[in-house]
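Data deposition worksheet. Section B asks for the primary sequence of the deposited chain exactly as it was used as input, without tags or linkers unless they were present during the calculation. Section C holds the resulting structure in token form. Section D is free text for depositor observations; keep each observation to a single sentence. Incomplete worksheets are returned to the depositor.
Section A, Depositor: J.P.
Section B:
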Amino acid sequence: MAEPLLRVSGVAKRFRGVEALADVDLALTEGSVHGVVGPNGAGKTTLLNVISGYVAPDVGRVELAGRDVTRRTPQRRVPLGVVRTFQNIRLFGGLTVLDNVLIGQHSRARTGPGSLWPVRSARERQLRAEAERALELFDLLPYRKRRAGELPYGLQKQLELARALAARPRVLLLDEPAAGMTAEDRSALVTRIGELRSGGLSIVVVEHDMDVISRVCDHVTVLNFGRMLVDGAPEHVLTSDAVRTAYLGT
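Section C:
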């Protein structure tokens, strides 16, 4: 078995005495999709926050390709390849669709006095071309000059994904990417995630839509009250009596 690209070991986190996570493990292999599901308040977003560096665990360890990144900030994890989206859309609504994706490339763009030079460098032209390819992947290229805030909700969710891809992640963390989407948008999302996995991208997805989880994930972890309830292949996890009890109380 190949070593996981991302490994979370024994992570625990409390907020003012409330146990958000307790002894949680996760192993993401390269080119796979790992789902994290559970009832509201189960600790799913807290887990993504720990992996991405927005929250430091009280105990435990986060490793990327064997490197300990537990205490690295989000800004220091992005250049290493850990990139995320958020449950609530965080676009720059007053900027164009293309500019939002270009912002996603900030860790690879030119900075300092040279960035003020009015003539684009070869590097900047390359980044712009990459940004437009990301938009094309999500059928957003016709909207590249529109303000992001003017797009319908489903297209804004896709724009968040395009912006995340602009950072060239090795590990992409998706927090409820299908929330608020139409059935057509969800189907397109499933297709896109499959394409990204086929391209070698490793993905952790938090999602309430079990149809999306069952169609895109190779492995699923179920959290309940911050603890791991079930962990395994989707066909076993999603039919588990323990999972049904956690969700439905039956």
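Section D:
Confidence is low (pLDDT under 50) at residues 110-119.
DSSP finds nine helices and ten strands in the chain.
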